Amino acid sequence: MKFSTSTLAFLFLGAATAAPVEVSSEVAERAANCVVKFNITIGRSTSFKMVGSLPELGNWNYDAAKESTLENAQFSYAYFSRELNLAPGTTIRYKYGRVDANTGQFAWDQTGERSYTAPQTCTQTIFHVDSWKF
């Protein structure tokens, strides 16, 4: 692609004289952190949570953790996700728990405690897929 001299001058000078743009603290935090979306497919349940070592994961307290998002439910399976903003290099520990829709019984995933370490450099949303072990 070719640009005329006047177009290049405009682009250069326009960039140099542009007013600073204010960025909200939430946008700045997301830009500095790694956005990691944890995904898991399990049988249907009435309540499904990712519980773990962060305040947003309830600090290991199932009742304090936020519900995971139901992304899709087809047939007898449901697809859940939970998005976290993690500082680069941060390691978290977590596990999954659910309440069965048919029996009302609570169960932890049999895999037990899991861990995840965010990469040192993040340029896009990271999708991390787990599987439920009955």
TrEMBL record:
- List, alphabetically, the PROSITE patterns matched: CBM20
Pfam families from the entry? Answer: CBM_20 (PF00686)
User: What's a Gene Ontology MF term here?
Assistant: starch binding
Pinpoint the CBM20 domain residues. Answer: 28-134
Annotated signal sequence is 1-18
Enumerate the SMART domains for this protein. Answer: CBM_2
Name this polypeptide is given: Carbohydrate-binding module family 20 protein
Keywords, comma-separated and alphabetical: Carbohydrate metabolism, Polysaccharide degradation, Signal
Please give the biological process terms from Gene Ontology that the record holds: polysaccharide catabolic process
